[in-house]
Write a structure and sequence with these properties.
The complex is a heterodimer. By secondary structure, chain A is of the alpha/beta class. Chain A contains 7 helices and 10 strands. The longest helix of chain A has 16 residues. By secondary structure, chain B is α+β, with helices and mostly antiparallel strands. In chain B, helix 2 packs across helix 12 and helix 10 runs parallel beside helix 13. The two termini of chain B are 27 Å apart. At the A-B interface, helix 2 of A face helix 1, helix 11, helix 12 and helix 14 of B.
Chain lengths: 235, 386
């Protein structure tokens, strides 16, 4: 597919990326010669059927996995050149993750969950508290700060997940099916929140979704099928 | 410290499992404390033994007596500073189970030989003035609520008086303490002159149990011991002379190789605990694969993940170990449970530190495999298991 955005303005550049998984003697080609550029400030929806490689692509952009071939550059950093240790530190600094199943620590309260990425910084306890309060205020959950995940609704848990994703003020927010486990009303609230983060706080967001209703909130939608991207929905 | 809350909360996740593991570690460390105290009681005398002192006994057996006249000959042997003697009295106070040692000694020589025994000067003077006087260690005095001025009857299982009575009466004139921890303060010492004058004519008059010798130079102790034995070679009562430490060691060895027995029991216990705690940690990490994936995704490095798992296993074992050692110390500090058979029954500070070291080692060993397993997790794979 062709990219309209300038290379220089791109926050994310995926070039000639191929990803092959090995299952026994079988090679599974998930992504093939894939190109993608995401400019700063974009809210990109990544759609496609199950097994099309959406999450794999998201993982490559987030530095959770490495491509078999090709380059992934985020915020000017070539991820293939980073060691595992430096990649982890890079993720802590640049990436906020939002997962479909929220992935909160059940033994920690909402505020403690949000604080987790800040434990990797040099912030004092008071400074961490300030950041956590701000993140919870952005997602509208200040009043539930001391609640454990099991006492929160799905929508509230996802808000905590988003607060955890943005608490370090990352360069890029990666959301993997953020509304996939929520009812329509809660899903809409999460989508409104992500759009607000994009528009009002200038966050670059890449969101994987099945749901056309969700992708409609994005500024651009690309479609992934059989390892290839296109601007048109898969027939 | 900022990770402590996360580690603590993970530990509390499965309360029953954590409690049971904690309890098993706690029991193991109580056992460690008790066995250490028993080992100390049985072998501690070796540590307390003075390098300047030799013990001379009959070559055949400690129960064979030696002539009192040997003392003067020993004092003339080159390298000997001076010699004094003791004799096993084998007395019972009220009940055979009230065991403690009582020996007749020559007070001035005895006190000069044993500077680890601390007796106030006025009590020493009283002992010298009172032929029936005896001094008793503080632990026995407290055990029987004896105080200075009390007259105590002790029935000897070995020595009869000229009157035929086996009951000897002593006036408590002094209560001594130990100069350092570990000094045995259970024995009662009374005057040899009173003992020798009053024992029956045909029952060992002029004979003593064993001699203590102080050498002028501890480096020459082995040489002096040879000289002593050579002095009495081919006599009717040949001697066996050895350093005080070796003498005490030989005494303790009659029960067996205590150190080996204790090590074997502790080895079995800690191996079992290793499996129990190791299983707990392995399960804890397996159940948390997805969460570990999340931590890695948000930027926790492999090293930090290893640190978190190890810190959790160490916290568990140190909690169990610390509580176990604390409880053991509390129970042991109440004193000898046998009321006399283990006079030096206490938990040495050295063993407390060893116990703490064991608890840290236990945490590291039980945590290392799960920690490496967590480290090797691929983030993308781990997230799929949420």
């Amino acid at each position: 597919m062709s990219e309209n955005q300038s290379n220089h303005a791109a926050l994310v550049r995926v070039e000639s990326v191929e990803k092959i998984f090995h299952r026994g003697s079988e090679d599974i080609h998930v992504l093939a010669d894939l190109h993608l550029q995401v400019p700063t400030g974009e809210f990109l929806a990544l759609m496609g059927p199950s097994g099309s490689g959406k999450t794999t692509l998201l993982n490559l952009i987030g530095g959770l996995d490495r491509p078999t071939r090709g380059l992934v550059t985020v915020a000017g950093e070539r991820l293939d050149q980073l060691s595992d240790h430096r990649l982890a530190a890079w993720r802590a600094r640049h990436i906020g993750f939002v997962f479909q199943l929220y992935n909160l620590m059940p033994v920690l309260t909402a505020e403690r969950n949000v604080e987790l990425p800040l434990l990797l910084t040099h912030l004092s306890k008071a400074e961490r508290k300030k950041h956590v309060d701000a993140a919870l205020a952005v997602v509208g959950l200040s009043h539930r700060a001391t609640h454990y995940p099991r006492t929160l609704s799905g929508g509230e848990q996802q808000r905590v997940g988003i607060a955890r994703g943005i608490v370090t003020d990352p360069t890029l927010l990666l959301c993997d099916e953020p509304t996939g486990d929520l009812d329509r009303k809660a899903g809409n609230e999460i989508l409104d929140l992500l759009r607000a983060l994009n528009r009002e706080h200038g966050k670059t967001v890449i969101m994987v979704t099945h749901d056309p209703h969700a992708s409609a909130r994005a500024t651009r939608t690309v479609y992934l099928d059989k390892g290839q991207l296109s601007n048109e929905p898969v027939k | 410290m900022k990770f402590f809350h996360l580690i603590w909360c993970n530990l509390k996740r499965k309360k029953l499992r954590t409690s049971l593991t904690l309890l098993s570690i706690l029991v193991a460390f109580i056992l460690f404390g008790f066995l250490s105290a028993i080992q100390q009681a049985l072998t501690g005398g070796v540590e307390m033994a003075n390098a300047n002192r030799l013990v001379v006994r009959h070559k055949v057996s400690i129960i064979q007596l030696l002539p009192e006249s040997y003392q003067a000959r020993m004092n003339r042997i080159p390298g000997v500073d001076f010699a004094t003697h003791q004799t096993w009295f084998g007395g019972i106070y009220q009940d055979p189970k009230n065991f403690f040692m009582q020996n007749p000694v020559v007070p001035e020589e005895f006190m000069k030989m044993h500077p680890e025994i601390v007796l106030p000067p006025e009590q020493m003077q009283a002992w010298l003035k009172t032929r029936t006087g005896a001094i008793v260690g503080r632990s026995t005095a407290e055990r029987f609520h004896w105080k200075i001025g009390d007259r105590v009857p002790i029935q000897s299982t070995i020595w009869s008086q000229a009157s035929g009575s086996r009951t000897w009466e002593f006036d408590i004139v002094g209560i001594y303490d130990g100069a350092k921890k570990g000094t045995d303060t259970t024995p009662l010492f009374f005057r040899y002159d009173y003992f020798d004058e009053n024992r029956r004519e045909n029952r060992g008059k002029g004979l003593v149990g064993w001699y203590n010798i102080r050498v002028k130079d501890s480096a020459q102790a082995a040489e002096v011991a040879k000289r002593v034995d050579a002095e009495f070679e081919n006599s009717s009562a040949e001697t066996k002379t050895e350093p005080e430490g070796a003498f005490v060691q030989a005494w303790a060895s009659q029960i067996g190789n205590i150190v080996l027995i204790v090590a074997a029991i502790l080895g079995a216990v800690f191996f079992t605990i290793l499996l129990v705690a190791g299983n707990t940690m392995a399960q804890a990490v397996r159940e948390r694969t997805g969460e570990l994936g999340v931590l890695k995704a948000i930027g926790f490095t492999n090293g930090r993940i290893v640190g978190l798992v190890l810190a959790e296993s160490c916290l568990l074992s140190m909690l169990g170990g610390g509580l176990g050692l604390g409880l053991a110390w509390l129970i042991i500090s109440r004193g000898d449970p046998t009321k006399g058979l283990l006079p030096m029954f206490y938990l040495p500070t050295r063993d407390l530190f060893i116990g703490v070291g064991f608890s840290i080692a236990l945490g590291l060993v039980t945590g290392i495999m799960p920690a490496l397993q967590a480290m090797r997790l691929r983030v993308a794979d781990a997230l799929r298991r949420m």
